[in-house]
Design a protein that fits this description.
- This is Acetylornithine aminotransferase.
- Belongs to the class-III pyridoxal-phosphate-dependent aminotransferase family. ArgD subfamily.
- The modification N6-(pyridoxal phosphate)lysine is found at residue 253.
- This protein has two domains: 3-58 and 304-393, Aspartate Aminotransferase, domain 1 (Alpha-Beta Complex); 72-303, Type I PLP-dependent aspartate aminotransferase-like (Major domain) (Aspartate Aminotransferase, domain 2, 3-Layer(aba) Sandwich).
- Helix content is 40%, strand content 18%.
- The protein contains 14 helices and 17 strands.
- The model has no long low-confidence stretch (mean pLDDT 98).
- The protein binds pyridoxal-5'-phosphate (PLP).
């Protein structure tokens, strides 16, 4: 099948939620490269939107998935599962969390976190503490509760009435946050770096102050680490940059390296609000998804990928900042680790993405910001090659 055969079939049969897709289809990936159905090679600087952390077809990863598939894919959460228990232990040992629950996506993990925050106060006899504060321009997912949590009208407008109880405040505005807090405040949910809206990191002081207010007032502090987690920002979890430990945080995207899995991770005092029957999942944390995630952690350790993300990310940002000094249409370079945004003075990011695609580089774009999210295995040499092409295009 050619790409245009696939596109025609898609247009006839697939709901049009993704519109005019980029006119390419891939049949094989290897490392940071993707091979199209027409035999061309692309360099992947998007990693399936921050998913393919260990790159494509990593031999150890493929082996782990194949071995698991040969033995057992799924049995349901009625039974104990070795891979699930080991993955939970792994996350607990490396993070602020004491307990973990597995879901199948980022939105679903965030739903779990929202439910956990609500039930925490409910079980303390305070069901009036149900309001959750999120940020304007945030992104928390596409389910009904998570579009309500997402502080962007464009995602929620058609779906009113929305799940009640969400309040939105502008990022980095402590006064606005304080004004939104009341006896009803249940939790605050934050992305440490807002990803989908264009790579906007939160200020250190802001996060610390919000965190302190939360501790004072028994408000749960939730980090949405769906995109920023798993080494993307040069630390395993982005909250580590802020010197805080969230009560609850969520993971998904890179956790399974391409196999769908999400996680709700929490401190014991919050996690213990979930009692048998309060939450659940059919697929969540099945042996295949957990074997994939365990392999991701294993490869991270063997290949020092979190460190690589920090070092190559710093190098990348340095190169981009030097370039920006000579290119007036670049307004700002933002990001941490390998989560990088190039903001232009005009809405040309889509055009830049298109031109990079013509030169066989895959990136992402919002109106004014080009988003760069390479696999964490990327090298300085790969960055140099990208910079060369980017300079030519600019
Ligand atoms: C991608 C993303 C989500 C949604 O994840 P899905 O797996 O698409 O449901 C939630 N929060 C953040 C911060 C994200 O980047």
């Amino acid at each position: 099948m050619t790409t245009s055969d696939i596109a025609n079939l898609d247009k006839q049969n697939y709901m049009n939620t993704f519109g005019e897709r980029i006119p390419v289809s891939f049949s094989k990936g290897e490392g940071i490269h993707l091979y199209s159905d027409s035999g061309e090679v692309y360099t992947d600087f998007l990693a399936g939107i921050a998913v393919n952390a260990v790159g494509h077809s990593h031999p150890a990863f493929v082996k782990a998935i194949c071995e698991q598939a040969q033995n057992l894919l799924h049995v349901s959460n009625y039974y104990y599962m070795k891979q699930q228990a080991l993955l939970a232990e792994k996350i607990v040992s490396l993070s602020a969390a004491d307990k973990v629950f597995f879901a199948n996506s980022g939105a679903e993990a965030n739903e779990g976190a929202i439910k956990l925050a609500k039930i925490y106060h409910y079980k303390k006899g305070n069901s009036q503490k149900y309001e959750i504060i999120t940020l304007k321009n945030s992104f928390h997912g596409r389910t009904l509760a998570t579009v309500a949590a997402t502080g962007q009208e464009k995602f929620s407008a058609p779906y009113h009435p929305l799940t009640p109880g969400f309040l939105y405040v502008p990022a980095n505005d402590l006064t606005a946050f304080e004004a939104a807090v009341s006896d009803k405040t249940c939790a605050v949910m934050l992305e440490m770096i807002q990803g989908e809206s264009g790579v906007h990191p939160l200020d250190l002081d802001y996060v610390k102050s919000v965190y302190e207010i939360c501790k004072e007032k028994d408000i749960l502090f939730i980090c949405d680490e769906v995109q920023t987690g798993m080494g993307r920002t040069g630390k395993l979890f982005a909250y580590e940059h802020y010197g805080i430990e969230p009560d609850i945080f969520t993971l998904a995207k890179a956790l399974g390296g391409g196999v769908p899995i999400g996680a709700v991770c929490a401190k014991d005092f919050a996690a213990s609000a979930f009692a048998p029957g309060d939450h659940g999942s059919t697929f969540g944390g099945n042996p295949l998804a957990c074997a994939a995630a365990l392999s991701v952690f294993d490869i991270f350790e063997k290949e020092n990928l979190v460190e690589n993300s920090r070092i190559v990310g710093e190098y990348f940002v340095e190169q981009l900042k030097a370039l920006a000094e000579n290119v007036p249409c670049i307004k700002e370079i933002r990001g941490k680790g390998l989560m990088i945004g190039i903001e232009f003075t005009e809405p040309i990011a889509g055009d830049m993405k298109h031109r990079l695609f013509e030169r066989h580089y895959l990136t992402g774009a919002t109106a004014t910001t080009l988003r760069i999210l390479p696999p964490l295995i990327v090298t300085k040499n790969d960055v140099d090659q990208f910079m060369k092409i980017l300079k030519e295009i600019l």
